[in-house]
Design brief:
flat, four-stranded antiparallel sheet, 18 helices, Transposase_22, 10% strand, 469 residues, Alpha-Beta Plaits
């Protein structure tokens, strides 16, 4: 079961970053407010004499905020939160997917009286087993991860609901298939809670949405008056045009300094650090996904035995295959097995994804995977005309790992990809990791990302250039 503790910590760190961004915006607003003048430019121009007016008009074209406004607007646009919100949406969907996956193992039971106070998780689990057996489902205590009572949202005075989390989805499916018989069980006979990370993530996106105050700040910069006061200008003006020009030149320099100060403040508000945190969350999600996929195996070439073929049918098809290979695996070692859509439209049977309860059971199967094509299909009930020659078993890779495998293994004539381009003899996946090997005697290279391939590509290119020089 994938744990979400690391993801929860990353979300907390992301919230701290959002708080920091908000504080920086407040500082920038204060700086702008302190630079605003209590008088308008028109009142200053009214106090100038006729002789200085022409010079001031000339300098006013230089004393222009338009360039600064454009620059500030560009800087602020760099700080737009669209990319961050997009990444947070992806994180939210991933968390929701994890949560939905976890809930697939759960069943909620209503109306069972409590047998003690307090009622321990073991008491509740044993109560569930008795109920399920009374319904006709073959479930033991080993099929239950935990069962416990939860708070009842309806204050009707009835018993608390029970959340029962199964170890294997096949066991849950058997219970759910007989759920309508729960009310028929004789009560005289012996008879999972997940953290709401999605809600926290949603709240985090609301906080990010509130940072649209950046747009208001942009408008304030565009509408603000020159950072000078009437009193300071009137004190420095005299009847000589040169004095007026000197004064405004000084103020123009002050404004330039303010512009640099504002630019520094805006640069401090860049989202690089927050984006880094979001990337870390994305990496954590990939790690969680990779961990979950370690329990999975992909089987190709097994004919379908019915339409529709249920998960139980598929699971019971896998067990004799594994036993025929020499692996000691039972139905209790399988969480669930089901068919998935084939990406290759070759008309063959759909691949099977088999998820194990224990990785040790999967490792035993994978150690004998080369014998899968040697199993006699007649033992499955197939006719003599059916052949298992094309049956293969692989590690089931995450989408990211599948992309990496595609990059390193696709045919040279079709896409000129990595493996054939650099004449690697071997490319394989083991325990959800991808490896390359130049020759049978060389050291294997582990590939964890597309970036690893790019670095290898760069190294080979550099070595070729060096050898030709």
């Amino acid at each position: 079961m994938v744990k979400a503790e690391a993801l929860r910590k990353e979300n907390q760190s992301l919230k701290v970053q959002v708080d920091t961004l908000t504080a920086e915006i407040d500082k920038l607003k204060s700086a702008i407010e302190q630079m605003e003048s209590p008088s308008s430019r028109e009142s200053i121009e009214a106090s100038l004499n006729t002789e200085a007016q022409s010079s001031l008009d000339f300098l006013s074209t230089k004393y222009d905020f338009e360039e600064f406004r454009r620059h500030a607007q560009r800087e602020i646009q760099r700080l737009n939160l669209l990319e961050l919100k997009s990444k947070l949406d992806m994180v939210g969907k991933a968390i929701e997917a994890f949560e939905a996956y976890s809930y697939q193992f759960n069943a909620k039971i209503m109306g069972i009286p409590e047998i003690g106070s307090p009622e321990t998780a073991k008491d509740t689990s044993e109560l569930c087993v008795a109920l399920f057996n009374g319904m006709g489902a073959r479930v033991s205590l080993q099929d239950i991860d935990v069962a416990h009572s939860v708070q009842n949202h309806n204050q009707n005075g009835g018993p608390k609901p029970i959340i029962c989390k199964f170890v294997r989805r096949l066991a849950k499916y058997e219970v759910m298939a007989r759920r309508h018989d729960a009310c028929k069980v004789d009560p005289v006979t012996p008879m999972v809670k997940a953290e709401a990370l999605r809600k926290e993530n949603q709240s985090l996106k609301v906080l990010v949405d509130t940072l649209t105050e950046i747009d208001k700040l942009k408008s304030a910069i565009q509408q603000m008056e020159p950072p000078s006061s009437r009193e300071s200008i009137e004190a420095s003006l005299n009847t000589e045009a040169q004095s007026s020009l000197d004064f405004l030149s000084t103020k123009y320099d002050d404004f330039e300094e303010f512009g640099r100060h504002a630019q520094r403040e805006i640069q401090r508000l860049n989202l690089l650090e927050i984006k880094t945190k979001v990337d870390m969350v994305g990496k954590a999600i990939e790690d969680f996904q990779a961990y979950s996929y370690q329990f999975n195996a992909k089987i190709i070439g097994i004919p379908e035995i019915g339409s529709p073929e249920t998960a139980k049918d598929t699971s019971e098809l896998c067990v004799p295959l594994f036993n025929g290979m020499g692996a000691r695996v039972s139905l209790q070692d399988i969480d669930v097995a089901h068919r998935v859509q084939s990406y290759n439209q070759n008309g063959g049977p759909k691949p099977i994804i088999c998820k194990f309860v224990r990785r040790l059971a999967k490792y035993e199967v994978m150690a004998r995977r080369h014998d899968a094509c040697k199993v006699d299909p007649v033992t499955f009930g197939f006719s003599d005309s059916v052949s298992f020659d094309s049956v293969r078993i692989f590690d089931y890779l995450t989408p990211n790992q599948q992309q990496i495998l595609y990059e390193v293994s696709i045919n040279y004539d079709e896409a000129k990809k990595f493996k054939d381009r650099h004449k690697f003899q071997y490319c394989w996946a083991k325990n959800s990791k991808i490896y390359l090997r130049k020759t049978s005697d060389s050291r294997p290279i582990k590939i964890t990302s597309i970036g690893d391939l790019q670095r290898l590509e760069d190294n080979y290119t550099a070595s070729i250039v060096q050898s030709n020089s």
